[in-house]
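Team,

Forwarding the record for the chain on the shared tracking sheet. I've put the sequence and predicted structure together so nobody has to dig through attachments.
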Amino acid sequence: MNDPTLRAVRAASASRRLRIGFSAALLAGAAIYSAGVFLRESDAFSPLVDGFLSQLTEWLPAAVCWFMALRRRGRGPELALVAGALSCQAAGDTYYMVLSATGQVVPVPSPADIGYIGFYILFLAALWSIVRRRLASMAWPVVLDGIVGGLGAAAVLAVLMDPVMAEIMSSGQRSATAVIGAVYPLLDLLLAATVLGIAATPGRVLGRGWILLVTGLLLYTAADVVYIDLQLRGLYAVGTPLDLAWAVGTALIGCWAAFHGTPRRRSLRDVSCVPVQAVPGLATLAGLGVLLLGTQVHIMLLAVVLAGLTLASAALPLVFRQRIRLLDATRQARTDELTGLPNRRALYSDVPGRLADVHRSSAVLLLDLDKFKEVNDGLGHHVGDELLKHVAARLVGTLRPEDFLARMGGDEFLVHLADCGPRAAETVALALRDALGEAFDLGGVVVQVNASIGIASFPEHGTELGLLMRKADMAMYAAKSTRSGHALYTGVTGGPGKTHFHSVQSLNEALSQGQLVLHFQPKLELGTGQVRGVEALVRWDHPTLGLLQPDAFLDRFEEAGLMPALTEIVLGAALDQAARWEAQKLGMSVAVNLSARSIMDSRLPAKVAAMADARGLPASVLVVEITEDVLVADRARATAVLAALRSMGVKIAVDDFGKGFSSLSYLRELPLDELKLDKSFIFTMLDDARATALVVSTIDLAHSLGFEMTAEGVESEEVYRALADFGCDLAQGYFISRPVPAGELTAWLASRGSDEIAGFAIATDVDFAGSARP
């Protein structure tokens, strides 16, 4: 895992611990206050319980909300509005508590009423802010169900509040007192109806932890209604169990704020199991019930009006509901569920029509996020999903309204630019990469990504969508391999004979049609001149391009996710050749250079054993070669796999030793047998005293640890003799032999004499590090 990803993982872990800590503190505060209320010895005002603890349960949730709002500034005002609402409530209660503690009568109206009413106004504004941002992605039937559910709930609540309202209006109090007394039940009614309406809407409109917010608000409003009734009858007293409802309600709201905006893992619970007609059906029954009740007893006019609106909202659209749902189903079938962009179905339906006008040039851009797999594996798929949403939003904000943007799947997006030539398309590609260059803040997790973009131009590169997409795909992988950011399709990418682009189809053909072959290069024992091993290097016998070196195609196999298949084929071919040499009484053993992905596969030892058994070979025929950079990813897992291989008799060698930058501590920790000194030291050894010192000291280091030392890249007799003088064990390079096919190698061995073939080892080098020798 690279440093930015590691830092992001640590930041996510710290953020999660902070949110859990806030929630625990809020619930603990409510629990302590509850214990104080139940354990108090008298009904007299208690400075500890009714003063400090009561205020703690008010101000602590407000403080948590303010803290989270500041962390998420610029990404929606709902947390700031909730923090303001709780602060208003706390300020009103503080004023009320001070007067109660000093034995003064709280006037009506009072400054506390300003704080209480402010709570309702700000909280309703917060709910509207949350819902408003989700309306664009919600289908009309869903929105309609929420409205109907809210109206039905409001009608029922109005009936329940009718006795309270009737008592307020008939109490004969002064007009200001009557108005204030009537405002609170109405605001409670509005808030409860809004919350129930949102809760009735399929989906998670309120985000993660929505049940905490709904429960907290319903507790709050229920406590308000009971309080109003008790206050009218002169029965309310501070410090009763009723106060616990407010304390627990505000604590739950604070817990919701602590987790609001964090990416969440999708689960089966996200799929609504409520029948489609359940919400409008229940709301209709509620509205009819209220109207029927009105024919038997007196209920306030507001309840009748709400019931009538419920029936109208539920009944009138029934005629069109099925048509609306059909249209919405069609829209959803053409829309990517995660990002809201057009999907593949919409792409193949709409873009051919956009290409129909052959007199207008246009361009197809294929965009793929770099190292997106690291985000998914390191931070979790829920963070990856959240990142894709933000990426889609930035792409939409960069493109013109007339451009077409679709998500192909995974981390791939396709753009069709109308009236756009090749150069203008490159300019757009640069703008898209710049838009994605700024870090993404995903609710406490900061992620930095780049993108590679391939461009195919219409009609220069084709007139059919499928052909343009294939060529854009080829250009995109060329941009990845050269790290240029974007590339315009040219047919061939990179320098002559080096980085010719290969489509995924051609890579699969290479695997399935036997186009991958092995060439072998011998290793000599410097002390005796005997052949001690052979390194086998993979080549691609391309049907049109001829024999390709590893650096012309290995990166492409890695990008396409086909390296495991290539590794298995090369390993099988090496073992097959070893079996043939075994049949010729040459006594060969085999070593395979493994990729990082293979090293991390705990099933590798069993696979190796099975492949060797199938060919009648012992597992000890293998010598596994690894590179230093493989060990950086996950040393613990690599050590376990290598130890399992070594316990089977397989030898372990480090290839290209000294080329990487990893710690030497792995020489002590890993089960190793051989070090292969990188050829860059050998090339300069005779001309650079410092290089000579490094070679000599590395040979001594290997011997002191019980390892054999092999020198790569030996291309002259002088270097060969110098290495022998330095005490190096083995050497390979052009001075000894170039890599040759197996038949030529067998003839070469025969020409040296059978007495020099004892102890022969074959090293299979697929060169996963991207610096293959020719």
